[in-house]
């Protein structure tokens, strides 16, 4: 029975994630990843034929990790409770996964999406459509199904929580524990404001 490879794809992606968190997308080069992982550059090229493949794998791994938990968080039968849980998940997940969160604070375009292989671009589009569909379902369940309402739901569930994450991350601070509840409270305030008016 052969030994497992010393520098497998996951360990190389872990090294790439650390570089991305420290230096942003520009810091993720094939040479830098090899150096960070203590691997020969051939190991990196063996797993990832070129930098676009590496950047795609890195971005998609972080996105998959985030989206799987997010989609699970928004399954409460009460749509408002689901929305609150989704917003809280963004903050909690980001606190618990700082390297992945740092990657997702950039866009896929920052990670060279235009140069990714077509299957990876398609995979990203499918993943984003799935989340968009669930956000639309939540908006509809709350009786808000216009394009404006769906955009408001996206802002409440994703953009506002990520603003809390980004502010703390960029300042080099830990995300405070109360930020999850604050993100959830912002959802309630935004999505129920018309009912109170």
UniProtKB/TrEMBL annotation:
Transcription as UniProt keyword: yes
Residues within the DNA-binding region(s): 29-48
Any matching Pfam family: TetR_N
Gene3D superfamilies, A to Z: Tetracycline Repressor, domain 2
Keyword DNA damage: no
Residue span(s) of domain HTH tetR-type: 6-66
Coiled-coil region: none
Origin superkingdom: Bacteria
UniProt keyword terms in alphabetical order: DNA-binding, Transcription, Transcription regulation
PANTHER family: HTH-TYPE TRANSCRIPTIONAL REGULATOR BETI, HTH-TYPE TRANSCRIPTIONAL REGULATOR RUTR
Protein name as it appears in the record: TetR/AcrR family transcriptional regulator
């Amino acid at each position: 029975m052969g030994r497992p490879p010393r520098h497998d794809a996951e360990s190389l992606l872990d090294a790439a994630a650390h570089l991305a968190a420290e230096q942003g997308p520009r810091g993720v080069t094939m040479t830098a990843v090899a150096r960070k992982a203590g691997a020969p550059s051939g190991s990196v090229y063996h797993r990832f034929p070129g930098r676009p493949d590496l950047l795609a794998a890195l971005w998609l791994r972080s996105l998959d990790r985030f989206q799987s938990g997010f989609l699970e968080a928004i399954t409460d039968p009460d749509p408002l409770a689901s929305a609150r849980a989704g917003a809280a998940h963004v903050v909690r997940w980001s606190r618990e996964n700082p390297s992945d969160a740092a990657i997702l604070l950039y866009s896929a375009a920052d990670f060279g999406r235009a140069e990714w292989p077509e299957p990876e671009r398609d995979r990203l589009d499918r993943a984003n459509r799935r989340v968009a569909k669930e956000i639309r379902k939540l908006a509809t369940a709350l009786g808000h199904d216009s394009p404006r309402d769906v955009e408001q739901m996206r802002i409440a569930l994703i953009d506002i929580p990520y603003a809390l994450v980004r502010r703390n991350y960029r300042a080099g601070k830990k995300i405070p524990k109360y930020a999850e509840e604050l993100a959830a409270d912002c959802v309630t305030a935004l999505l129920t404001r018309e009912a109170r008016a």
